[in-house]
Amino acid sequence: MAKTLAILPAAQLAPLAEAYRAAMAVKRRWTIGGLAVLAVCTALSVWAGQVDIVKFWSGLPRFASYFHDILPRLRFETFAADMAEWFWNLDGWLGLLWDTLLVAYVGTLAGAMAGFVLCFLASANLTRSPVVRIFARRSLEFGRTFPEIVFALMFVYAFGFGPMPGVLAIAIHTAGALGKQFSEVVENVDMNPVEGLTASGANYVEAIRFGVVPQVLSNFVSYSLLRFEINVRGATVLGFVGAGGIGKELISSIRQFYYADVSAILVIIIGTVFLIDWLTEMLRHRLLGIEGGAR
Question: Could you tell me the superkingdom of the organism this chain comes from (predicted)?
Answer without folding.
Answer: Bacteria
